[in-house]
User: Which sequence fits this backbone?
């Protein structure tokens, strides 16, 4: 149901005394059996010590919290604690008409681990394996991830984790049951519960909340390998150079033309005057010729 989130009820297993619920400290937790009870006057009690069993909630159309739980529980169709604390763990007794059910709640303190997509994740777990028998089991969101028979060494892997999970080869002598998960995927995120089954009981329970961050792209990972595609010569630059060269030639041409005009003008003034006659436009004295001074009309 919608009220049940991935951060609550990570593991449910039938034991001889009833149900076992696991939740991570601070997460929301639901008691699923209360949803199926419709007997008016039903109640859920938390057995703390012998003779001390405070009532958590009672059924009056909907489940209503009692003192001590009103700040963490709202009237609902089932008993849901919005956030768990360490004092919530223990044995609960559900009385529904003539029926009684026992529920054991484990509140687990977890650690957090962030892994980059594509890399290997190592989640530490140690257990005293010298002479011990039992089953080492890892689950994610109630689904099998990895299982190891401590007596035979036989392993099993859950769906989606095939050929990706392992423990150290010397786990038996060292007690190192650290789980290695290869090629982490985004869908591998979640809450991992580690525990040992021995003599039909669970022990050494541990929880790790795994998050998966996206893999960095190539440019971010290897900036020195970034390459640039050579660009063809810029046409605008070529055009600018051509215009500049043309401008130089134009200026040079204008300068030369100016020099020629100066020589023509000079010849108009000096050629005819030196001969004592009228100036003529046909006389073109080279620019380098120096006019001869005239004294009393004779050269």
Assistant:
């Amino acid at each position: 149901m919608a009220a049940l989130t991935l951060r609550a009820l990570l593991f449910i297993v039938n034991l001889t005394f009833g149900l076992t619920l696991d939740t991570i400290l601070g997460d929301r937790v639901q008691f699923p059996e209360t949803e199926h009870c419709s007997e008016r006057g039903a109640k859920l009690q938390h057995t703390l010590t012998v003779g001390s069993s405070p009532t958590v909630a009672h059924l009056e159309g909907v489940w209503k919290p009692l003192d001590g739980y009103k700040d963490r529980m709202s009237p609902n169709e089932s008993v849901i604690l919005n956030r768990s604390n360490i004092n919530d763990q223990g044995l609960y007794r559900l009385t529904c008409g003539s029926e009684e059910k026992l529920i054991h709640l484990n509140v687990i303190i977890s650690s957090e681990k962030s892994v980059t997509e594509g890399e290997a994740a190592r989640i530490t777990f140690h257990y005293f394996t010298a002479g011990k028998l039992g089953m080492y089991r890892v689950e994610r969101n109630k689904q099998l991830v990895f299982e190891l028979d401590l007596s035979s060494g036989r392993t099993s892997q859950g769906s989606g984790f095939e050929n990706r999970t392992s423990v150290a080869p010397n786990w038996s002598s060292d007690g190192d049951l650290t789980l290695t998960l290869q090629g982490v995927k985004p869908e591998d995120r979640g809450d991992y519960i580690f525990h040992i089954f021995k003599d039909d009981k669970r022990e050494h329970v541990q929880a790790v909340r795994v998050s998966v961050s996206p893999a960095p792209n190539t440019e971010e990972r290897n900036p020195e390998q970034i390459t640039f595609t050579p660009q063809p010569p810029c046409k605008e630059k070529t055009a600018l150079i051509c215009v500049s060269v043309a401008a130089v030639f134009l200026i040079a041409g204008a300068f030369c033309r100016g020099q020629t005009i100066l020589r023509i003008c000079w010849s108009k003034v000096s050629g005819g005057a030196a001969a004592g006659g009228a100036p003529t436009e046909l006389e073109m004295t080279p620019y380098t010729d120096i006019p001869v001074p005239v004294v009393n009309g004779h050269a």
